[in-house]
Amino acid sequence: MKDQISSYELACMVKELQVLKDARMDKIYQKDKEFLFQIHVTSKGKHMLRVVIPNYLYLTDYKGDFPTTPPGLCVFLRKKLKNARLREIEQLDFERILRLKFSTKDAIFYLFLEFIPPGNLVVCDENLKILSAKENKRWKDRTIRGGVEYTYPKQKYNFFKLTKSELKEALENTKSTSIVKALAVELSLGGIYAEEVCVLANVDKDKAILDKTKDNIDVNTIDRLFKAIKELQKLPLKPNKLKNEMFPISLKTREGGEESKTFNELFNNAFTKKAIAKQKDAAQGKYEKDLKKIDNMVKAQEATLVK
Fold this sequence. Notes:
Layout: H1 7-17, E1 23-31, E2 34-41, E3 45-52, E4 56-60, H2 72-81, E5 85-91, E6 97-103, E7 108-114, E8 120-124, E9 130-133, E10 137-138, E11 143-144, H3 164-173, H4 179-186, H5 190-201, H6 219-234, E12 240-242, E13 245-247, E14 258-259, H7 263-306
Antiparallel strand pairs: 1-2, 1-5, 2-3, 3-4, 5-6, 6-7, 7-8, 8-9, 10-11, 12-13, 12-14
Helix pairs in contact: 4-5, 5-6
């Protein structure tokens, strides 16, 4: 089972997370790169959003264990977002980044969740000035630290706004040797959904991109791929699980999966089981460590008694 959400899957997840719109932030918990936001939805009650940076996020009914003394960032989040209303949840372009907009009586705050490894959680004011972040980092084209304006890495192409001319440009300028690899890399689709585009377009995924006699890609191939992309953009959510893989839509390349009510439900079932097992292992490890410590104490006391 993969534990890294893709750009396309994040877009599908955002559709389901709209149930949280206008909900009130109640409680916030943090354990290293794992955050749990307990949110109250009017007339629907408590919802819990688990965010594991940089892997995934999903709605859950399982809280789990968190430190009784929260980390500094968690304290800051509680101070700023307690009772705030979640006004917007949106994906930035086709990046693996979510922007959550919160409002209080006196201020507007933005929470950016970055699922691009190594991942990050960044808090900004209404002017997008960074107030705090899980990790302060600096790259050649952007900086994450308090006091600077938040910017994010932008891909050249947005899958959901892609034009036919952009598709042609992406394929003709790619360094990838096959159509499926080019779609996966240039459009940030990843292997599974790039392969699905090829199947929908009835195009050989391993076909070389350029027509060597004309030094450009076949126009008919471009037309079929673009039509398939438009179809993938509009496919309705139909979450399903095939073996250990989870998908937000029905795929021709992954048929026969077990359907689920929501994509969130698939994540909750899969990762909550892992979390419970991990917690049990940790508890068992602590028990055995404590038992060994007591055993050593008993042996030391017995030795003392013999003397």
